[in-house]
Amino acid sequence: MQTAMKTVLSRYSIEESLNITPPVDSAPALFSGFDLTSDASVLVKVWPRRSGVDSDLLLLWEAELRQMQHLAGLPGVTEYLIPMHDAGVDDEGFYLILGNGDIRPLDWHQQQPTKRRPLSMKHKVRKLEWSNLRRIANGLGILHSQGLIHRNVSESAIFTEYGTVPDFRLGGFEWNIRLNTFGNKVLPTITEARSDTRASFRQDWQAFAQLALRLLGIPVEALAASPSNDADMVAERLKFSEQHLLRKLIHPVPNDRPDTEQILKLIDKIISEYNRSSTRDKLTLCLIYNHQKKGNRLVQLLIEDSIEHYDVTDAEAVTDFIRQDLFEAEFVELRQEEQGHHRFAVIGQSYVYFLNDHGQHGWHFAQISSISRNMPSVKAVCSRKVLPQNTVLVRTPRQLVDKLIELRVEADHWDAVFEEKAPNTESKAHLKFSHDAYLWLYLIEGLQQAAEAWLVEVMDLREEELGKYTYRIRFVEDEQRRKLSDTLKLKAPLDRFIERLENPDDENETNWCAIQQGHTVSSRELHEITFDEFLDEQDGEERFRFSGSIQWSVDEKLLLSPSDSRGDSRSMWRRKKLITRLAEHDELLTVLNSPLITARKSHDELPFLDPTLLDDSKQQALVEMIEVLPMYLLQGPPGAGKTHLVSQLVKHIVSTNRSPRLLISAQGHDPINNLMAKITDELEQTVDGDIPLMVRSRGRRGERVDGTTQIKHQATRLLDNVIGSPLFQKAPDTLQFKFSQLLASVQKNRVDDHFPDKALESLLFRSANIVFSTTNSNDLAEMADISTHFDWSIVEEAGRATGVELLAPLMLSHRRLLIGDPQQLPSFGEDQVKRLLSDTESLREALLQGRPLLNSIFNDIPLDDLLEKFSEPIFAARMSREVNRHLTLFASLHDELYRQRGALPLAGRLTNQYRMKPEIAGMVSKVFYKNELETPGDAPICKAQPPFRITNAKRLPLSPIVVIDMPYWHSPDAAWARDQAPAHHNPGEVNVVLKVLSLIRCPKNMVKPAKLAVLTPYNRQVKKLRRAIAAKANNDLKHLQRFDTDVEMVQTIDSFQGKEADIVVVSLVRNNAHSWKRALGILADFRRMNVLLSRAKFKLVIVGSLEFLKLRFLPGKSVEESDDLYFLYEWLNFIEQNSGGPMKQRSIIIIPPSQLDG
Could you give the CA distance from residue 132 to residue 138 in angstroms, rounded to a whole number? Predict the structure, then answer.
C-alpha cells in the first residue's frame, strides 16, 4: 500500500509492510517508508489504536520511546543499534520513525526470492555472518551496560541491507525491561503478550547463540548439552572455536556471568581463523573482455589514440593491451551520485574500465561494461584500493567457457577486493574534524602548562631545624621555555615568575612544587616547597628565598611549578581519556556539530505552570527545555533566577518519575553548592514520601561537603536501613558482621578523609537519583569511563567552561541542559587561547617549540599528523575556527541557536531579574544587555527596604549607586590616587574603602544579617584591603562583625561570580599614565565588569577615577558598538545621564573622596 499518514506522520509516506506474520496482541506493525522532506528511506513502527487497550499501547510506546532516547546518548549506539528519528501520537495510533538507509528486518530479507549477491567460498560467508554477529553482540553489550534486557534477540529484531558488508543493527526494543526500574507504572500487556516472564542477561545471550546457529545453518538441538547423533555433523560444519562459544552461551555454567568483552574476544578469534583460511599468497582477479560486443568502445579509443603495436581486430591483441594497461591498477568505488550504471571501476595507465558482475557467475568474474579515457575526479570516488602488480587476468568469454574450472580455482572472488577496500569514512569526516579540534584544545592547554614551569638554581641552603631547610634561589634562563612563551604570546618567563610570586592565582597560594631538572612535571618526584620572600638583587639578578624539607645540593637546578601542578596533571589525564572516548561518541559529536538537525521533541508530560512561582520568561524556558532533545541552552543574566528555575525543573522531573537519574554540575564549587542547597531544600519541603537519594562529589581539593548530600551521611543511612531490615536478621552471621564493620568504618570516617570503601562509594554514585559535581571532577570521568548514564545532565555556569571541561557531563546523558551567560566570566585563559588561534603560524610554531616539553601524557597523540595538516593555510584557518568554537562552546552554540529559534527552539534567554534594585539593574541592562533585562514592577526587590543603614547620608548618600570619584593621578596633588605595579594595587583606594565601611551599619535586631562584600579585580588589592580591615577590626570597624561576609569580606571578581550581597563596595584600582586598553587591565574585559557591577542587591558603591576612564576616548571621535571598549563608553554615559537633576531623583550620585570625611 502507498498512503500518506495524517497529522503526526504528515511528513512520511508508508510503502510496504515488513511484518512476516501479522502482528498479534500488542505487537507493533512495521512498514517501509520515506521522509517526504528529505526523500530518505525510513522505517515506520505503528501501534494502531484499539478500543480498550489504548492505555496499554501508550505505555508500550512510551517505554520504547524512552529506552531509545536513553540509548541514543551512549557511545557506539549509532553503529550497533537502529536509530530513532521521530515519534508521535495521533488519533489513529502511536508511531516511531526508525532507520538508517535501506535497512530492513533480517527475517524480511530471508523471505525474499532474491537474496544477497552470492559469495563463492564458505569461509567468506562464515566470516560475514560472524562479523555481523559481532555487531549484535556489541549492541547487546550496550543494552546490558545500562541494565536493559532485550528479551527478543531474533531475526525480526535485526536490521540490515543484507549485502556483503557487515551492517547488522539491533532493534526491536518494545520488549525491553530495565532491571532497576521501580515505580507505579506497570505494563500489563507485556506480561500477557510474552510467555517468557522471566528475563535475564543470560537468556539474551542464549537467544543470541540460537540466532547464530540459525544463520550458520545448524539446528539448535544439534548443540545439545550431552553428546547426540548430530555430533559428527556439528564437528564437520563448525570449527572448534565456534562450538566452544555457542555451547558456552546455550549451556552456561552456573554462576558464570555473561561477559560482553569475553564474548567479543571469542568472536574475534573465530573471525581471525576465517581470515587465515581466506589468505592467498597472491591476489588474482579475473576480468572478462568481450571483443565481439557491438560498438566496442575500447577499439574506438585505441584507433582514436593511435595506439601502436596492437592489432585492434585481434581479440587476443586487445586482451593483451588491457592486461598491460592494468599491470599497475587501482580499484575504485564511485559515490552514489556519480555511479550511473556502475558502482565499481578499475583504473589503468591509459583508461578507466567500468565493471559489472558476470551475471551467471556473479562477482566471481567481473566483466567490462564500459570504458573511458576520462579519469574520475577525486570527488567522484568514495574509496580506492591500489592493486598489487599483475593482479588482473583478462579473458574472453570463450576462454572463460573453456577454462572455467581452472579459472574458478586460480582466480579470487571480487568480494576479496570489496571486503578489503578502505571503509567509506566520508560521512564521519566532519566528526573527525571536530574531534581533532578537541585534541588541539588539549594540546594548547598542555603547552600552557609547560610554559608555567621555571628553571632555577640553588645558590645556597641552610638547615633551620631538623629536616627543615631554607634555600636561596636564582632564576635560570631556559631557552626552550623562552621560545615557547614567545610563540604563546606570553610575557617573558622571569616576568611571569615574579608576577606569580607576587600575585598568585590562588589568593592563599605560597606553595610550589620542585623537581630535579630532567624529570617531567607529572613525575612522582615532585616535592613541595614554600615561597618566603624576595631577596636583594645580586649581580643584576633577582634572588628568592624558599623553604622545604628536601636537602637540595648547592648549584642543583630545579624546575618549579605552581602547587596545583599535581592536580593539573591528574586533570589532564582525565581529559585525555574523555577526548579519547569522544572519538567513539558519534551521537555527541553530531549534536555539537549539527544541533538543529539532531533536535527532536521529547514527548514528555509538561508541568502545571504556576504564575506565582515562575514569570512568563521562565515558564516559556521551562516548557522548551522539557520539550526538546537532545540539548537545550539557556542564557541567564544576573539576578534572573536561574537557580530557582532549575530547582523547579528538578522538582517536576522527580514528581513525574519515581526513579530519575539526574546529574547536576557546574564549572566551580560555589555555583554547584548554591544550586545544591536550593534543590535539596526544595525537594525536602515539597516531595511526598521518600526523598530522592542525593550525593555530592568532592572536588580535587577535597573540599568539605556538609549536609545530607555528603557521601558519609548517605552511606550511613543506607547501611542503617539494611541492618534494620527483617531480611538482614535472617542473613548469615558472617555477612551481618561484615556489614556492621563497614558501618563502623563509615561512621568513624572524617568528612575530609577519603571514603573508606571504594566499592560502596561507587555504588552510591551509580545508584543516586541526583549527583552534584563540578564538571572536572574525577568521579564524573570515572562514570563516563564505565558508561554510566543519567536521564538528565544539567550544567550551571556552562559559559565558564571550555568544551573540554564540558565533555564529561555532556557524555553522561542523552539529555543536556546547559545554563550560562556569555556576558559574564569566561573560561580560564580563554582570551589568551583566542589570541593564539588568531595566528595559526604561531600556534604551529608553539607546538614545534613546546613538543619536547610536553610530558608523557601526550606521547600517543598523533602530533605529526596534526602538524602536517596544520601546515596547509586553508586547513589551519578552518581548524582554528573550529577550535575557537569548541573553546567557547556554550557561547558559540547559544548565539547560533538563539538566532535560529523556530518551531522547536533549542536556546532561550531569561529577561526578568529579581535580585537588584531597578536602578542597579537598569545600569547593568543598558551597558551589557541592550536594555533587554527588565525588573517587573511587582518584584519584591522594588519595595524592599535595605537591611542595613548609613550613619551619615551627607557623607555617604543613600542612592542605590554611589560613585566616589577619585582624582586622576596626573591632576595636581593627586599622585596619592595612582595605582601601583607590577602587582596592581591602589593604596589611595584602600583608605577610601575603609572610610566607606566606617559609615555602614547592620542593625542589631535583624533576623538575617545583611550581607556585605568588597570586590576588586586584583589579588594584591584584595590582600591590602584585608590587612587594612583586619588592622581596624577591633576598633573603628568592629561593627562589621554583625554583617554576613561569606567566607571572606574582600574577594576578587572571579571568586564572587554567582554570589550576591546586599551592599557591595568596589575598588577599581586602575589609575595610571598608560594609553587605551593597556591602562585598564582587567577593567577592559566587559564580562568581568558585568560581574563586578551586578552583585549588589540594594547598594553599589564604586571607588575609581571617572576622568581616568574617560581619557580612553578621544574627544569628537565616535565609538562604535563593535569597539572593544564600547561597554565602557556606554557605562560612562549612563553615569552621566543618571547623576544629574534634582538630588532625590538621581539613581547615581557622584561624590569626591573628601566628602566621606564630612
Answer: 10
The DSSP symbol for 815 reads: S
| pLDDT tens per residue, range 449-478 | 899 899 999 999 999 888 899 999 999 999
Q: What is the pLDDT of residue 644?
A: 92
Rounded CA gap, 787 and 75, in Å? 8
CB atoms within 10 A of CB 672: 25
Q: 537 and 522 in contact (C-beta within 8 Å)?
A: no
Beta-carbon count within 10 A of 986 CB: 31
C-alpha grid cell for residue 1027?
Answer: 590587612
56 touches 187 (CB < 8 A): yes
Residue 31 reports pLDDT greater than 90: yes
Confidence label for 625 from pLDDT (cuts 50, 70 and 90): very high
Closest among 113, 114, 97 to 163, alpha carbons compared = 114
DSSP3 helix / strand / coil % (the chain, rounded to 5): 45, 20, 40
Torsion of CA 112, 114, 115, 120, to 10 degrees: 160
The b-or-e profile of 630-664 (16+ CB within 10 A means b, else e) is: bbbbbbbbbbbbbbebbbbbbbbbbeebeebbbbb
Neighbours of 287 (CB within 10 A): 24
Asked if residues 792 and 817 have their Cβ atoms less than 8 Å apart, the reply is yes
As a whole number of angstroms, the distance between CA 1101 and CA 577 comes to 47
1025/1019 Cα distance (integer angstroms): 10
Residue 820's pLDDT band, with cuts at 50, 70 and 90, is very high
Q: Which three cell numbers stand for residue 355?
A: 565493471
The residue-averaged pLDDT of 248-257 equals 85
Max CA pair span of the chain:
118
And the C-alpha cell for 900?
Answer: 535560529
330 class by beta-carbon count within 10 Å (0-12 exposed, 13-18 middle, 19+ buried):
middle
Residue type, 664: I
Alpha helices in 724-829, H assignment, sequence order: 726-729, 733-748, 758-767, 778-785, 807-811
Nearest CA to 889 out of 817, 816, 824, 805 is that of 805
In 786-870, which ranges are continuous DSSP H helix? 807-811, 830-837, 840-850, 863-870
In this prediction, residue 209 carries a pLDDT of: 95
Split at pLDDT 50, 70, 90, the class of 773 is: very high
Q: Are strands 468-475 and 541-548 parallel, antiparallel or unpaired?
A: antiparallel
Integer Cα distance of 675 and 1097 in angstroms: 19
Sign of CA dihedral 122, 124, 127, 130: negative
Bridge-based pairing of strands 330-334 and 454-465 is unpaired
The Cα–Cα gap between 186 and 350 comes to: 70
Residue 540 scores a pLDDT above 90: no
The DSSP code sequence of 1056-1108 is GTT--EEEEEEE-----S--GGGGTGGGG-HHHHHHHHT-EEEEEEEEE-HHH
Name the one residue in this structure whose C-alpha cell is 522548551.
Answer: 624
The mean pLDDT value of the chain amounts to 86
Residue 959 neighbours by CB under 8 Å, 6+ apart: 919, 1146, 1147, 1148, 1149
Q: Using 50, 70 and 90 to split pLDDT, how confident is the model at 182?
A: very low
DSSP 585: -
Q: Can you give the pLDDT at residue 198?
A: 66
> pLDDT at position 303, please?
77
552: DSSP letter:
P
Q: Residue 451, exposed/middle/buried by CB under 10 A (0-12, 13-18, 19+)?
A: buried
Q: Which three cell numbers stand for residue 26?
A: 500488542
Cβ atoms of 1067 and 986 within 8 Å: the answer is yes
DSSP lists the bridge partners of residue 635 as 820, 909
